[in-house]
Design brief:
This protein has about 500 residues and is mostly helical. It is about 45% helix and about 5% strand. Helix 3 runs parallel beside helix 7 (about 135-160). The protein is globular, with a radius of gyration of 22 Å. The N and C termini lie far apart (about 50 Å).
């Protein structure tokens, strides 16, 4: 059995056995915590774990990052007729029938704001604790970075959102209204730049903690989403210049549990298994449940017909990303002594297009029970940084320089180097490369939206310009915050 990633493991157990249970598990609405907390170093450590907690929730880097970023894109054909469990809510996202009470939409809102309110409380309270100043600075930097991550997820999903950077009273909370996208990005940029100097290049703490590379990578991504091309190129270059990251030769090992927290990883959601299944307490990789072609959710996430044909001949990523007409393995290691024959069950009738997603499926495991395995989800990896750098360089007219990071990504896929330097032509190539490399990792819809081509690409799925660039906010929030407006109006 693989080693448990202790730090993130604490997130799950705090909700049932941790001290100050109200602080760690409560869905904050006004930022108020117990007055007797935040007195010791241990309090600070537990509170920081609480700030990390929403990373592992449905609305952040579990299901919602794939549902919102991929089901609504041209990478997925949502063909379920299943009304059980969450099936109808998945299909509603795919069909652009976006309702405020959709669990994946409102989970994004509540889980991100839970993280923000906890970060705000942490940032306000921890400076008064007597502890090693360098450790205190690092802890505060981690909380500040996480606040930026939560805000980034909110702004790409909902556009203008309430901006909160302090602990609020109940009356202040009720007065909140949408802040312009530009102001939210300004806060994200300020948080990332404040965090970076006090984050370690490599973290000696438990796996999963934030590092300088992750913060710089997010900074580059954040600039990219604002079309701040020069800043995006510079931030991405700073990641490269750290000299700590490189592409892993075996692409599929990044997604099947065999090469987690590798030299390509800037940040991962540390999935662990200590509960029987997805439906029980824990921080499991529920994404594997969605992709598996042999269990009941196989009709909820089906690669589109286009994804089957879009890969050029010889592209090694296709076999790592897609399972065509077969399952990844027919063996299982049941006793730690090696794999034994274990025929997988047949494909379910709902296995449309004769293809399924291979990313995040645990290789060599019993595919009937695939929803209970600890395969990490990537939050940001080095290949994305290189593609961010390539896109940004091309947009500032440095096409020849953009070819260097672009061709690094293509080389691993066994694809020939690109030599095109015409900006328009190279833009198309880079966008296509981004789709292939990052397929099913939650980027596609948001990329199409920021490029301004979502209507062209997604019109046949139901996308309507002026209505579907962003998702609706939870209806309950409109009652709590009278100044908050719905999208679209």
């Amino acid at each position: 059995m693989k080693n448990i990633k202790y730090f993130i493991f604490l997130i799950g157990i705090f909700s049932c056995i941790g001290c100050n249970e109200d602080f760690v598990t409560k869905q904050f609405t006004n930022g108020v915590v117990e007055d007797n907390f935040y007195k010791t170093v241990k309090d600070a450590e537990q509170a920081l774990t609480g700030v990390y907690d929403p990373i592992s929730r449905k609305g952040v880097y579990r299901e919602s990052f794939v549902v919102l970023g991929e089901c609504s894109s041209d990478n997925i054909d949502e063909q379920t007729g299943d009304n059980g469990d969450y099936g109808f809510q998945w299909k509603a996202v795919s069909d652009y029938r976006w309702l405020p009470d959709n669990i994946f939409i409102y989970s994004r809102w509540y889980d991100c704001y839970a993280g923000i309110f906890r970060a705000n409380t942490f940032i306000q309270k921890v400076p008064a604790i007597v502890m090693d100043e360098n450790i205190k600075k690092q802890y505060l930097a981690e909380a500040t970075f996480l606040r930026a991550v939560y805000y980034w997820n909110l702004v790409i999903t909902f556009g203008d959102v309430p901006l909160v950077n302090k602990v609020l009273s109940q009356s202040e909370y009720r007065k909140l209204a949408r802040s312009p996208i530009a102001d939210v990005y300004k806060q994200i940029e300020a948080d990332l730049n404040a965090a970076i100097p006090n984050l370690p290049v490599a973290n000696s703490n438990p796996v999963g903690r934030v590092t300088k590379g992750a913060a710089l990578g997010f900074l580059g991504r954040m600039y990219l989403y604002q079309n701040k091309w020069q800043q995006a190129a510079e931030a991405s270059k700073q990641v490269v210049d750290l000299g700590r990251y490189k592409l892993v030769p075996d692409f599929i090992s990044l997604f099947n549990g065999k090469n987690e927290n590798s030299v390509e990883s800037l940040m991962e959601f540390q999935a662990v298994t200590f509960a029987p299944s997805y439906w029980d307490l824990g921080t499991k990789n529920s994404i594997a449940s969605m992709w598996s072609p042999t269990i009941g959710w196989s009709n909820w996430y089906t690669p589109s017909k286009e994804t089957v044909t879009i890969f050029p001949k010889g592209d090694q990523r296709r076999k790592s990303i897609l399972v065509v007409g077969a399952v990844p393995a027919d063996s299982i290691d049941v006793d730690g002594k090696g794999s034994k024959p274990f025929p997988t069950p047949p494909m379910r009738p709902t296995y449309f297009n004769n293809v399924s997603v291979r990313k995040y499926l645990p290789e060599g495991r019993d595919m009937n029970n695939v929803n209970n395995y600890e395969v990490n989800n990537h939050i940001i990896r080095y290949a994305e940084v290189l593609l961010n750098q390539a896109e940004a360089l091309n947009e500032v007219g440095k096409g020849s320089e953009a070819l260097v990071p672009l061709n690094q990504v293509r080389e691993r896929a066994k694809m020939p180097d690109i030599t095109e330097t015409n900006q328009t032509a190279l833009r198309t190539i880079i966008r296509q490369e981004r789709r292939l490399e990052l397929m099913f990792e939650g980027h596609r819809f948001f990329d199409l939206a920021r490029w301004g081509i979502a209507e062209t690409v997604l019109k046949s799925k139901g996308f309507v310009k002026g209505r579907n660039e962003f998702f609706p906010v939870p209806q309950a929030e409109l009652g709590v915050m009278p100044n908050l407006t719905q999208y679209p109006k």
